[in-house]
Write a structure and sequence with these properties.
Blueprint lengths: L7 H8 L18 E4 L4 E3 L2 E3 L2 E4 L2 E3 L2 E3 L2 E4 L4 E3 L2 E2 L2 E4 L2 E7 L2 E4 L4 E8 L1 E4 L4 E8 L1 H14 L6 E4 L5 E4 L1
Parallel strand pairs: 1-4, 2-5, 3-6, 4-7, 5-8, 6-9, 7-10, 8-11, 9-11, 10-12, 11-13, 12-14, 13-15
Antiparallel strand pairs: 16-17
Length: 167
């Protein structure tokens, strides 16, 4: 595959590599390109990236991503992943911290996941702990409080004729 080619077939193949159309190298959301570690490649260490990152090989270490980290069907990560969105179609052992985590139908995750949004597709496997990403929830609650109308208290008599307050 000609990753840097302007060839139409190469572009179509690049856009259909398992990102479910969410992200592509030509997207306005992704101005930093796509980084891919191919299968049959093993890396030990920490990967830091501002681009969309696709892991098809083996990593013994951490990934610190900015936007999307995708662990493909042949990908294995033995370490921690931090990103805005993490999609796992391969295997991850460690800890995942993201706004959104999605385990695909071939994904296997043995980890502690901290996220606001968590999706497991049918066939996906998750063993570990799930934590809610508190900062995002507090942000949503604050937005909700501004939009909510005040609830008025209405007095209501109980069976003995005494007033009690009801919301």
């Amino acid at each position: 595959m000609a990753l840097f080619s302007s060839d139409k077939k190469a572009k179509e193949k690049r856009e259909n590599t398992g990102f479910n159309g969410q992200f592509s190298a030509d997207s306005d959301e992704n101005t930093h390109g796509t980084s891919t570690i191919s299968m049959e490649t093993t890396i030990t260490g920490t990967i830091e990236t501002n681009s969309v990152f696709n892991m098809e090989g083996v990593l013994n270490g951490d990934i610190k991503g900015n936007k999307l980290v995708h662990v493909g069907k042949t990908g294995q990560v033995k370490g921690n992943i931090t990103a805005e969105t993490v999609v796992v179609d391969g295997e991850v052992s460690g800890e995942i911290v993201a706004d959104k985590v999605e385990i695909g139908n071939t994904g296997k995750v043995y980890a502690t996941i901290t996220s606001a949004v968590f999706v497991i597709q049918e066939g996906g496997l998750f063993e570990g702990r799930k934590k809610i990403k508190i900062a995002l929830i507090k942000e949503e609650e604050n937005k909700g409080k501004k939009e909510d109308k005040k609830i008025e208290e209405k007095p209501k008599a109980d069976a003995n004729g005494k007033n009690r307050k009801e919301l």
